[in-house]
Amino acid sequence: MRFQYLIHALLFATVVLGQTTQCTKPRVRRAWSQMPAADKALYIEAVALGMQRGYHHKFVEIHMEPSSEREAHGCLFFYWHRAFLLAYENMLRSLGNKFACVTIPFWDYGPLGASFIAGSCKNMLDCGTLLRDFGSSLPTGSKGPLMLTANGMRFQTDNCVTSAMTKNFCQSSTAYNSNKCYNCMPRNDWSKVEVPPDVNVLNVYNNILGDVPATLDGVTSGVQYGTHNMVHAVLDSLMGTFASPGDPVFYSHHSTTDALHAIYYNCIVAGSPPANKGRDPRTWSSCRNYVGRTILPSDTITMKVGETGARTTSVWSSTSSVASFFKGLPQKYPDYADTTKLGANSYSYDFTGTTLNSMNKQCSKFRPTAAASFLTAPADTSVNSTDVTKEISWLNQATALASKYYTESRDVNHQVQLMLCVYYNECLGGVFDYSDEFKANFRATTQPPCKRMIDELASGDATIGVIGWEQVMLKNYPCNTPSSKRVRRAWSQYSKADKDTYINAVALAMQKGYHQRFVEMHMDPPSEREAHGCLFFYWHRAFLLGYENMLRSLGNQYACVTIPYWDYATLGAKFIAGSCNNMLSCSTLLQDFGGSLPRGRSTQSRSVNGASFQTDNCVVSPMTQNFCQDTKSWTDKKCYNCMPRNDWSKVAVPPDVNIVNVFNNIMGNVKPTLAGVTAGVQVGTHNMVHAVLDSLMGTFASPGDPVFFSHHAIVDAMHSIYYNCIVRRNPPANPGNDLRTWTTCRNSKGTSIDPKDIITMRVGAPATSIWTATSNPIYPFFQGLPRTYPAYADTSNLGSNSYTYDFTGTALDGMNNLCLSFKPPRAFLQESSLIEDRLNPKKASVYNPDTSSSNQSCIATESNWITEATALAAKVYSEPSDINNQVQMMLCVFYNECLGGVYDYSEEFKKTFRVHSPPPCKQVIDGLARGDFVIGVPGWEATMMKHYKCSSPSSVFA
């Protein structure tokens, strides 16, 4: 205790001595981009010295102390951080005479957005001079990933960076006192992070003035939950936690955030300042503090210093270790409303040469009722950047165009922001939500502005009402990479060139020894248990993305490859119409993937990664010629070089792939929950396809057959349709706490899976988690993928791994389109995709001319039957689920009586896949036989026979 007391006493004495330095110049903060090299070097030296003397990490303690942090990130966010930054600035100024006039530089990240959208740079590191000057970031995995701790906060990071600024970083007071500092800065690889739309000058403007109420509440909500949060989120690592003041980038980021409030004050308040700042909504807002009491203007700001878990002291106390840095600063929130009224600590911003300059000058004459002039102001001549000038030119044009359709300036601003968000989403890699981990760390309950707008546009809750805006956008910014968005399409809609590319990619993956590694993962017992449990969709979603990333890594010609989905709902339409007779003749995909040989005279015994099974044949084709049954065989060059398959020409198309059953498995006859759709799809459609293909596909070694990935792509697509219909219009703030996106069951250890648990995916021998198996060849393909289940709820919110489905030309198209603005299930059954195509011939014209004619004829027949059968059932039943159930029973009976029968899974399959219930149609037929069910629709048989022939009619259809 005596030793600790002496440390604090000496520290305080040093601080007091250091505080004797004074600056006679006005305190003016400048942009880092506008500082000369000597000033930059001085600031870097000051920060490094602040770390070396043990002051820097004290500010991490303040920011993390629970009662302080609660106020810091509440409604008085600006004022709390204003005091915090001033104290840090005072600390730097205390370090010696040469640092006496140091100010925290602000990060003019407007040019980042301008340069990124213009294509002049590709990522945060490439676009951000400040990030490079502050020590940059090492390439992904050069030292990590690492699990580190800062003042008790544990987090993952790609690396720990040593530079002139960061070489003295200490993670806590304990580490500092024991001389066990990291002496490096935890950072992710920023070269892998795209510049988000939230730093674009237009979005920044709307966050301050253009699209938020002219109140402290309005600007706080706009900046804190938009620009501020997104910068923390994309930088991540230490910056993605409340220990973020450990990274010097924090202070420049918050200096910009503070500058945005200064602009707000100039525009909204300075012309008519309130007599009482604590009673005017332009300068005051109130919320509850840590103990649940409403914060009053007269309350002392809560800021306490002390290591996590140790005793804390108010920074305003003369005994605190940072007292001298806060000495002279106001202790009440309202006093921080105006940066120029802080006595000896007053300061201002110099926006010369930055994207904020025009905004600040124009807003100095702002009137709430007048049209905002910033967006139509001429380019600022003090900004030399061609990219910025180009952006302002586009803003002028887009604003002028929007003004022809909207009169209110806020509406005009909003329309232009919508245009920008759509361009980001379509041409610059996508617009994304915060990660679940970030949401938890920062208590972020709202989406970033652009993500919210894209979702509103998708759900029909918003629209861009400006005709010709796309031409104006493309006149200034070409959409060079629209196809780089990950879009999965049906195999039936692939061109021959696309098919050849995919087949070659899979064959090459087998040749390089990657393909069979995915079999290992799928078969590992703890991994397999989670894969086929209640989180079936999410586990396989991560699995397919890893495989897709692997294919994309094989060469430039494969960089945009996506896994094609198998549109087997169309198979059902063709089979029931009699245009094909079995799985092989009905499926172009099975034929293109190598087909299956005629059944041999005797079955063969094969083994893949230890799974033994019987198979009719082993097929050699361009796709399968390099198949290897396990890694040892690949190493020893003793591969099968053929694919074990049964004779699919002997297998009927099961009713479970018919569109009626598919729809009921997703939404029509199951609960609108993740548990409901999982039970419907996994136990029904998914299992039956594995069962009828059998051989390798009838085992958990099934990823060995490339058919597996296209089968699971459509299974994944079914969940995507479910999400669009049930969840997207009202997405949960926490996907791990909503029955529509979360359910739980036990893992292989018998423990209930928690939303925060790391997904179990192990590979190799001995089995190692793919998230840490850095020496395994397929580890890189999972890097960057989320590691927790809830993050996989939405395919369009997976960062650079986001993707969507194109259902054009398939039997799923109408279902997905109608469900985007969800109606009762009856709506789908009464409006087929074919009807939509007739109304939209332009859309129909994109169908593959080689396959669409026969397919669409079958879909037309099926659609007509569905329409008539549904209308007939609706005369007897009123509930959509009852109508759906009746139509499904009709289909099952027709299969059983006219198409060869309806069957249960084999005993072997039940054992392998742990199946405890029959397929849905088998349950229906058995229930009808027992009298548990009844088809209560008179005349349904005649309606069925009007559309379909019964090749072997029983008494039902005689």
UniProtKB/TrEMBL annotation:
Transmembrane residue ranges: none
A Pfam family annotated for this UniProt entry: Tyrosinase
Keywords recorded for this protein, A-Z: Copper, Metal-binding, Signal
A molecular function GO annotation: metal ion binding
InterPro entries per the UniProt record, alphabetical: Di-copper_centre_dom_sf (IPR008922), Tyrosinase/Hemocyanin (IPR050316), Tyrosinase_Cu-bd (IPR002227)
Signal peptide: 1-18
Domain Tyrosinase copper-binding: 247-258, 705-716
Tagged with keyword Signal: yes
Protein name, entry field: Tyrosinase copper-binding domain-containing protein
Organism: Achlya hypogyna
